[in-house]
């Protein structure tokens, strides 16, 4: 039995070591699907695997599919490992996001990870965005090129949301931080939200503004989800409580990032940030108040800044929000 023990000890050591290196986010409890989530739409196109820990979301001619958290959360750390559909995926949209659009039609909040499919041979693009209190006239999108093929393996996508900041992570490395500023007012998400994951037909806007449509010859498109973490303050929807008692948690919700995580974020953004609303002078003559202008990023993303650099072109993204995944679905059916 000795040969069993050694790998086990070695594995424990690796585990411990990776905790030290990656900060705190890896030690949150991982839930079975049914402990945290319910199916949302798509019937049979949502497939729960036998282990209870993984879900496949299918998109075919009939419908996409999606799931939603059982609880509403005010702040916390939320995460899933996701493997995206491969090959030709133009027009396919996979989203992992928080929203309260079903409760607040006019002044909802939202925090998004969106994966925009692409024509064969081109990479998936990843987009993050937030809305607060119905601020849908101000898109706060950022886009990134990925440094891996997200359809080849599972990668972890996480959102940290506190009273004062939002951090997006890929494989536990922060890629974006939004710090709440006083002038943002209600634009910083502040009401309890549920978690969603969906796959749907975004032909009208996802890939080059709708130039390439979903081709159902390659269906079903399958996005795989596992490693569900919902480490937040669950709130009672009828109470609308607005405080999060962090002390209840045996593993505290992080309050921000470490200097070494920040250094990683900065070097990653230097290479992989491809669009940020903060440098888009076509949309915003003056960057919204929360923008922290980084000269390196400004220089690299100057195609979006005709004012300062005089050679802009319209970016091809479109504003979109996820408050009605079912409508998005039926609109495309
Ligand atoms: C949010 O929106 C509602 C309705 O539009 C408004 O009454 C309220 O003052 C806003 N809250 C904040 C914090 O801006």
UniProtKB/TrEMBL annotation:
Protein name: Xyloglucan endotransglucosylase/hydrolase
This protein's UniProt keywords: Apoplast, Cell wall, Cell wall biogenesis/degradation, Disulfide bond, Glycosidase, Hydrolase, Secreted, Signal, Transferase
GH16 domain boundaries: 23-225
Any one Gene Ontology cellular component term annotated for this protein: apoplast
UniProt xrefs under InterPro entries: Beta-glucanase-like, Beta-glucanase/XTH, ConA-like_dom_sf, XET_C, XTH
Enzyme Commission numbers on file: 2.4.1.207
Major subcellular location class: secreted
Xref: CDD domains: GH16_XET
Localisation per UniProt entry: Secreted, Cell wall; Secreted, Extracellular space, Apoplast
Provenance organism: Cucumis melo (Muskmelon)
Region annotation Disordered: where it falls in the sequence: 241-260, 311-333
